[in-house]
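Ticket #4471: structure output looks truncated?

Reporter: J.K.
Steps to reproduce: submitted the chain below (437 residues) through the standard prediction queue, then opened the result file.
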Amino acid sequence: MLGAFVRAFRTPDLRNKLLFTIFILTVFRLGSVIPAPGINSAAIRDQLEAVQTADESGIYSLINLFSGGALLQLTVFALGIMPYITASIIINLLTVVIPRLEALKKEGQAGQAKITQYTRYLTLALAVLQSTSFIAMARSGQLFQQQIPVQSYMPNDDLLTLITMVFTMTAGTAVIMWFGELITERGVGNGMSLLIFTQVIAMFPSSIGTIWQEQDTWVFVLICIAGLVLIAGVVFIEQAQRRIPVHYAKRMVGRRMFGGSSTYIPLKVNQAGIIPVIFASSLLYLPQLAIGLFGQESDNAVVKFLNEYFVGGTHPVYMATFFVLIIGFAFFYVAITFNPAEVADNMKKYGGFIPGIRPGRPTAEYLDYVLTRLTTPGSLYLGFIALLPMVALGASGASQNFPFGGTSILIMVGVGLDTVKQIESHLQQRNYEGFLR
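Returned output as attached by the reporter:
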């Protein structure tokens, strides 16, 4: 493994890609600690270390996770990559609904460039909305649940300062998008995924230190062992796939013979990735938003019900709802991202067939059957991974800064494996041994 890293840095073009990626990630992390204009982040940091009760439930925990803790410090990159993720999800969903977007998707590289441009515009719009809402929450004290005096971290809250803060955070989101595209184009790996990976990893040292301070030594050791076992299990499932064999018949085009080859369609067990967990977390934040609007002390029966069962994230009703939503969103996302009928038509067009299955509609039905059987255990796996940290929090009494959360583990393993595979492919092109021997 270490020898492979040495060979990677000895290869000039691969070394330049790796150094460029590290440089961009370093600048990205520096921007995550620079406070926005008008914010005293040192006061926030000192107060958070004292109270340790900031609001880290629902979608805000997800945004704080993807910003590497920058959200609760109101820095230039406070929004992190979350606006881009949300915009990408919305565009993917609209592609199925809006014929114009679906036509662009089928146009190839030119159409994809247009969709990417639309995603950028939507990202900036969402960044304006999110930065405005977070600054309003910080100004009213709701972001920190009234635990930190507003005057200590926002001494000047006039209109010009607030507009400057919104502009700065929105510009920070645009810079993050640019960083991601630079890494994808000139570096190694997927830029946006690596930025998320960096922010998640940045939360690990402080989270592990918090558990070390709050728990006994044997509890800390057990949590670390359980985390390693969980990572190994996630690696195993993320690598698991069903390979559908495909044969292509020989055909004559002009004077040349094409086809006659064999390949396969790789269908992963976790075909949906982490998207269902993000969808479910976003939807379950709505009850907390309703409670924030009406107030926890409201006499409304619906507010009382939501406050009892959907606040805190450890009630069995909340967990069961979260689990069911993840399963439902997993099937929904796989259905809109993988079209068996389209795959079957493309195979038929180029003379491909699955052994024992007739081309056309029988092939589409077979692919749909296999995909459903794969998505069932994949969705159960996602629900289990997402619920395990909640059960651990309730059983051990650990803080919300739990380092082995389901979302963070899925991100770290998925992005790590993808990046290592890309580096390995670069090495194999030069007849070197890769990382996986």
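Triage note (M.O.): checked the attachment and the full token line is present. The chain has two domains: 1-207, 216-397.
Status: closed, working as intended.
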